[in-house]
Amino acid sequence: MIRNNLLSSIVGILILLSGSFVTAQKATSTYFGFHTELVRANTTTPLCPNVTQLPYSSYSQTIEELFGPNNEIGLKEGSIEEGDPDIVWVENEGEWLQIYYDGWWRSVEFGDEDMFNLRIKNSNFSIESHKDTDWYIVFSGYVSQKAMVYEVYTGYHVLNRGCPLPIRLDQSGISTSSGFQWGNEKTADIVYIFNGEAYEGYYYSGKGWKKLGTDKGYFGDVYLSSSLAIDIKGKEARIVIRPPTPLRRSKLAPKVHPTIKPPPKPYVYTSIEISGVSLPLFYARWYAYNHKVWYTTEVFDPTIQDDWFTVGLQASLPWLENPQILSISASLLSLRQGVGRVVAEWATHPSKKIK
Description:
The chain is mainly β. Helices cover 6% and strands 38% of the residues. The protein folds into 3 domains: 17-32 and 250-346, no CATH class; 41-133, no CATH class; 148-242, no CATH class. The chain is built from 2 helices and 21 strands. The strands form 5 sheets. Strands 1, 2, 10, 18, 19 and 21 form a 6-stranded antiparallel sheet that branches. Strands 3-9-5-6-7 form a 5-stranded antiparallel sheet, with no helix packed on it. Strand 13 (199-204) and strand 14 (209-211) form a beta hairpin.
């Protein structure tokens, strides 16, 4: 009987939601997401998180923030003298430091000094793995809708892609960046993309993207790696890496002057957790305002669909106290990346109007 009453109540909520008035105003959460990167055994892999810890915050994080105060990320530990631990290579004031974990975060260059608070610019680093098997590292957090902009000068620079989703080279905006030099293998600026085993170089000929060492064909469909590099031949350039179009904040969207206030914008919290059957999951959670608001979770992944698509519709239950926690999860075994957002709108016409 209890089960039937519960089912009837849920059906009632869905009927209520289906009758939502057409002119309701919506509130959209900050975008959030994750991406997983493969770390090869007994080799060096360049990486960086393309998400931030807080909405609209810097990509630069400390050693502790990236890997955990007690090596929660799972790097191989051991004696540096015997060559046991994984080495994290980070750039610091023009020099490369070798960071490892041996009960605390240390570096070859600074001996026993605790390096937990060392901040890595744009969180670019490389892992020199001493493990015997390949493994995955997961980055989760908040996703920017803005382009990554780099003021660079003559020489070699390591860049953060800035988005957890794949970005094609010919859709990245790099070739049209101010100061980016077109030409041939000798004269053009070179973009280096990691293919999982080694860097491969690409340059823009004026007609399309060419690959170093290859005369035929164009390679604009190559995807940027999470961490990439660029060799600037000219004096300076302003390199722009744009996110995929559905993520960008439109400057042409019409301004809306609602007569009804939209629901409060949902603030989403993200985490990586292990389920009861040992499955790694990405979780997004938020507090529901009340049962009169329904929440649509939308996801964008260009490897699945070209635009946003709905994966969930939720509302809090009217017989429980507010605020209730709603959530959605994704399996990290089946998905390599994803970006989501939660859209809140009134299920019924609210009584409070803007004065």
